[in-house]
């Protein structure tokens, strides 16, 4: 995110990790206006980092507990809470299906590159 609120560069792993973590473990989902929320919220955070009003939990002390918690809190503010609870076995099955899907995509992508 830059000063013009344009998304640029590659997706930071801390952003992806936090987004998925909040969704999977916190019971949140993407709202319909997620792109708008993301741009506005991350733009405000970017301004705060530039003005030295706060530190950036996505690029400084990324392994510290406080930065991890802050990243999760940021996405909890952007996502919608859903009232679903899944048990461990259901969660494990979903992860296995996701892994299988990603492996198929990777295999197909490799084939298309030849």
List keywords for this structure.
two-stranded antiparallel sheet, globular, 114 residues, 4 helices, mainly alpha
Pairing-aware structural class of the strands and helices?
A: mainly alpha
Order of helices and strands: HEHHEH
Low-confidence stretches: none
What is the count of helical runs?
A: 4
Main β-sheet, spatial strand arrangement: 1-2
Mean pLDDT: 78
Count every beta strand, where a strand is a DSSP E run of 2 or more residues.
2
Rg estimate, integer Å: 17 Å
Strand content: under 5%
* Oligomeric form: single chain
Please report the distance between the alpha carbons of the first and last residues. 34 Å
The largest sheet is: 2 strands, antiparallel
Choose one word for the global shape: globular
Please bin the fraction of helical residues. 55-70%
Walk me through the structure:
With 114 residues, the protein is mainly alpha-helical. 61% of the residues lie in helices and 4% in strands. It is built from four helices and two strands. It has a two-stranded antiparallel sheet with strand order 1-2. α1 (13-26) crosses α3. The longest helix has 26 residues, at 88-113.
List the helices and strands and how they pair.
Blueprint: H1 13-26, E1 28-29, H2 34-50, H3 65-76, E2 80-81, H4 88-113
Antiparallel strand pairs: 1-2
Helix pairs in contact: 1-3
């Amino acid at each position: 995110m830059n000063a013009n609120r344009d998304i640029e560069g590659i997706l930071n792993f801390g952003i992806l990790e936090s987004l998925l973590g909040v969704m999977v473990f916190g019971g949140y989902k993407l709202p319909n206006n997620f792109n708008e929320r993301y741009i506005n919220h991350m733009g405000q955070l970017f301004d705060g980092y530039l003005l030295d009003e706060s530190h950036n939990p996505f690029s400084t002390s990324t392994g510290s507990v406080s930065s991890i918690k802050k990243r999760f809190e940021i996405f909890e503010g952007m996502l919608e809470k859903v009232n679903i609870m899944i048990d461990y076995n259901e969660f494990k099955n979903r992860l296995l299906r996701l892994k299988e899907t990603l492996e198929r995509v990777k295999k197909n992508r490799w084939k298309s590159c030849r």
